[in-house]
Each structure stands twice: as structure tokens, then as C-alpha cells.
Automatic annotation (TrEMBL):
Its EC number is 1.2.1.27. This is methylmalonate-semialdehyde dehydrogenase (CoA acylating). The keyword Iron does not apply. GO terms for biological process: L-valine catabolic process; thymine catabolic process. SUPFAM superfamilies: ALDH-like (SSF53720). InterPro entries: Ald_DH/histidinol_DH, Ald_DH_C, Ald_DH_CS_CYS, Ald_DH_N, Aldehyde_DH_dom, MeMal-semiAld_DH. It comes from the Bacteria.
């Protein structure tokens, strides 16, 4: 059977890579080879950056309304192709069709936000700050920007990056995950159809060598990354040393605190969905629940809810699909075994899940540990699978201290019906994104993604107002205009503008 090849996008053309190194794109539910993706050569990376650099000369001068209208058309094209995009995403990534549509929709929200760039990229103006002196600021694009995206959201996270970068007047080089690049490339095709000119958006594929090339390239001015802490730390250090602006959204260990006054039925449903949705392959997954006081008696009901979840291939729209790869499955099952060895109580074991007709799939069912302690590896590591760790605390203060002692700060949630407890929690918790009875508190694009501490490097987050500042340089202009006969011509050697 003929296996298609994934192309590069360079200067508006989809081109076959000359690379001698290729990897298979594999359906994680069946092990079927869907396509082959190249690891781009250094020359191809250079060509993509050069195309972006050339295109920037004219793109930065393109009227802001013209840029906005491209993204108005782009969001409409994404909506029209939503079902086909979701099916492609499910085939290569594994998540359910419903979750795949959610993946695309959360990216679509950022595209819609990019269409409003005329309001977002406004500077400031002050008249007569000194004698006949006016001052104003403009937000100007940086130049060539780059993005490195992970396997778990192959639609949403590319759409976090290139639309806002391009809408603000930059050009872009995207490196999608080599594990599931097909839906990303289809979104790129639609972006060109919407009117993005040649060279403004380019795509290269690859692994560590291509990542390093993007970090090092002198013509790239800013770099965005979403992925693991190990790779993100490397990217931040290497690209920063090369003089680039860098933002890295990295690993997590997200906690929920459950107070006994919380709505029991709703809380148990929210915990189950947030822990096991997308097979736990979300940087915002709730992987730890701290049960306070009498809430610890809810464990049997939580186990029953998790046990009832359906596991299967994403195209059948079960509750959760497979993990991305055989290696991911081996890692997750190995950590489950380690949790048992360390003395945690295995309340629900997902290692034995069976999906008839898909015996080769990378399936792990919902797994729950109780009695988890901070020194255990299942707590210390981001498992990135459908594994929920349960801890206990006597008070809200004790639970907050547990969360704050963890180095990560991506997201956290509190379940309660007490306004006083909620206020105490949001004030005292040291985590960037806080949910109150909201298990996955990822903000809409009017706001920015605000992970913190070990989950984030760089001070400006993706999308929202912060990313406009990330992708632009603030230029301040101070001006004074004279009438021909005005002024005394006196020499002023002080710093004053009087």
C-alpha cells in the first residue's frame, strides 16, 4: 500500500523533503502507518527561515485591516472543515472525535481573536508632555518568529502560535510534532487558502536537530514552545543565549483540592473527566486530587465513575482513546508498577484494559492510586497518562501547603461551596491558573495562558494581551514641531524638555 509523505512548506510551496531520515506517523489505536514524515535537512531549515525573512519586508507593511480579514476568512474555513479535521486528528493522535473537535475549537478561538488585531495592537499617545512635546508608542513586529508544538494538541497549539504572530505583522516558521503532523498541515493548507502570502508561514519537520537549528538561527527573533519540561528548559536556555525572546510552556502536576462541602455529584464527575479525558495527555490534566476531611470517604464513588468510562479507538467516540505511542504506554504502565512498589494503594488498575479488535492499540484504562505521598515517583513525575493520584489533608491550609510545595504551577482547582474558602484559596495558592469549581482552568483568548513556576519559562504567555507584547517591539516616539519663526534658538544642555 502506498504511504503518503508529509511535505514541508517553504515560500508558499509544499515541497518534498530531500532528507534521508524519515519517521512513520502511526495510528495509536491500530499501529497502522498513516504517512511518513521527514526530519528536515539543515538546508531546508535555512530555506524556510530565508523565505520568512524575505516575506517580512512586505508583510510588516501590510495594512492591519488586510491582516485581520485573512483571519476572518481562516476561521470560517476551519468551521467548514471541522469534522474532517477532527477525523484526521483522531486517526493520528488517538483522542476521541468529540475531544478532537474541542482541540480544534480552542485553537479556533485564538484565530477569532487574531481577527481583532486592529484593537489589540494599539499604542499609546500623550499630547504636550512638555512644552509642545508629544509622546506616543507603536507596537511593531519583530521579524521572523518560530514555534515548536507538541503531539497532544496538534490543532490547538499551532493555532495558539502562528495566527497571533502573523496577525501582529511577523512571519513564522512552524515545527509541528513529528508524531502527528497531518492535521497541522491541513490547517496550514487552509491558512494559505485564507490568503496568507508565500513565505509568511513556513513549516519544517524534525526532531532535536531541527529544534536546535531554530534555537540557534540568527534570523529568528522570537521562539514559542509547548512541550515537556526537559525539552523546554533546553530550548529556553539555548534560544535565550542566542539572543531570542522565548516563551516555554512546559510540564505540570495539577492538583485539585476537594472540600467536604463541595457538590458531591458534580465534583466527582468533574474530577473524573479532567483526570482521564484525552487519556490524561494534557498539560492541564488533573493528575492529583487532595481530599480534605470527610471528602476522603468519596473514593469508592470516584472509583466507580472511573471504572464506568469506555476505552476504545477515538473514531468510536468512547470516553478515552489510546496513548500516543507504544513507548508512552510502556512508560505509563511502568510508573503504575512503580507506584504499587512504593506502597500506594491501587484502587483501580487500567493496565489490564482490553479493546476487542484493537489488541495492538496503546490503551491504558483509568487508574487511581490512594495513599499517595509527595516522595513517590508517581507524584514527583508528570505521568501524562490516565492516572489519578489521591492524597488526603485535614484542612484547606494543609492542602494549599501541599500544592505550593510542588515545583510546578500550571493549573489548580478548588471544589467548594464556600466563598470564603474560595477567596482564601485564590489568594494563597502559588499557581498561575486557578479554577474555582472549574477543573481545567484554561482561559479564553481574551486572557492569556498564565502557567507559572517550573511550568513556564519566559514572562509573557501565549495568546491574549500578553502574546501581542511578546510578538511586538514597543517603540516610543517623542516629537516636537516648531513653527518656522518659533523658539529662541537657545542651546539647552540639560536633560529637561522645557
Amino acid at each position: 500500500m502506498h504511504v503518503p509523505t508529509v511535505k514541508l512548506l517553504i515560500d508558499g510551496e509544499f515541497v518534498e523533503s530531500a532528507s534521508e531520515t524519515w519517521r512513520d506517523v502511526i495510528n495509536p489505536a491500530t499501529q497502522e502507518v498513516l504517512a511518513r514524515v521527514p526530519l528536515a535537512t539543515p538546508e531546508e531549515v535555512d530555506a524556510a527561515v530565508a523565505a520568512a525573512k524575505r516575506a517580512f519586508l512586505s508583510w510588516k507593511k501590510t495594512p492591519i485591516g488586510t491582516r485581520a480579514r485573512i483571519f476572518l476568512k481562516y476561521q470560517q474555513l476551519i468551521r467548514e472543515h471541522m469534522q474532517a479535521l477532527a477525523a484526521l486528528l483522531t486517526a493520528e493522535q488517538g483522542k476521541t472525535l468529540a475531544d478532537a473537535e474541542g482541540d480544534i475549537f480552542r485553537g479556533l478561538e485564538v484565530v477569532e481573536h487574531a481577527a481583532g488585531i486592529g484593537h489589540l495592537q494599539l499604542g499609546e499617545y500623550a499630547e504636550n508632555v512638555a512644552g509642545s512635546v508629544d509622546t506616543y508608542t507603536v507596537l511593531q513586529p519583530l521579524g521572523v518568529c518560530a514555534g515548536i508544538t507538541p503531539f497532544n494538541f496538534p490543532a490547538m497549539i499551532p493555532l495558539w502560535m502562528f495566527p497571533m504572530a502573523i496577525a501582529t505583522g511577523n512571519t513564522f516558521v512552524l515545527k509541528p510534532s513529528e508524531q502527528d503532523p497531518m492535521v497541522t498541515m491541513r490547517l496550514v493548507e487552509l491558512a494559505l487558502e485564507a490568503g496568507i502570502p508565500p513565505g509568511v508561514l513556513n513549516v519544517v519537520h524534525g526532531a532535536a536537530e531541527v529544534v536546535d537549528a531554530l534555537c540557534d538561527h540568527p534570523d529568528i527573533k522570537a521562539l514559542s514552545f509547548v512541550g515537556s519540561t526537559r525539552v523546554g528548559t533546553h530550548v529556553y536556555q539555548r534560544a535565550s543565549l542566542a539572543g531570542k525572546r522565548v516563551q516555554c510552556m512546559m510540564g505540570a502536576k495539577n492538583h485539585a483540592i476537594v472540600l467536604p462541602d463541595a457538590n458531591r455529584a458534580q465534583t466527582l464527575s468533574q474530577l473524573t473527566g479532567a483526570a482521564f479525558g484525552a487519556a490524561g495527555q494534557r498539560c492541564m490534566a488533573l493528575s492529583v486530587a487532595i481530599l480534605v476531611g470527610e471528602a476522603r470517604t468519596w473514593i469508592p464513588e470516584l472509583v466507580d465513575k472511573a471504572r464506568a468510562l469506555q476505552v476504545g479507538p477515538g473514531r468510536d467516540n468512547p470516553d478515552l482513546g489510546p496513548l500516543i505511542s507504544c513507548a508512552a504506554r510502556e512508560r505509563v504502565t511502568g510508573l503504575i508498577a512503580q507506584g504499587v512498589a512504593e506502597g500506594a494503594t491501587l484502587e483501580l488498575d487500567g493496565r489490564t484494559v482490553s479493546v476487542p479488535g484493537h489488541e495492538q492499540g496503546n490503551f491504558v484504562g483509568p487508574t487511581i492510586f490512594s495513599g499517595v505521598r509527595p516522595q513517590m515517583e508517581i507524584y514527583r513525575q508528570e505521568i501524562f497518562g490516565p492516572v489519578l493520584c489521591l492524597m488526603e489533608a485535614d484542612t484547606l491550609e494543609e492542602a494549599i501547603a501541599l500544592v505550593n510545595a510542588n515545583p510546578n504551577g500550571n493549573g489548580t482547582a478548588l471544589f467548594t461551596q464556600s466563598g470564603a474558602a474560595a477567596r482564601q484559596f485564590q489568594e494563597e495558592i502559588d499557581v498561575g491558573q486557578v479554577g474555582i469549581n472549574v477543573p481545567i482552568p484554561v482561559p479564553v483568548p481574551l486572557f492569556s495562558f498564565t502557567g507559572s513556576r517550573a511550568s513556564k519559562l519566559g514572562d509573557l504567555g501565549p495568546y491574549g494581551k500578553q502574546v501581542v507584547l511578546f510578538y511586538t517591539q514597543t517603540k516610543t516616539v517623542t516629537s516636537r514641531w516648531f513653527d518656522d519663526d518659533a523658539g529662541s534658538g537657545r542651546v539647552n544642555t540639560t536633560i529637561s524638555l522645557k
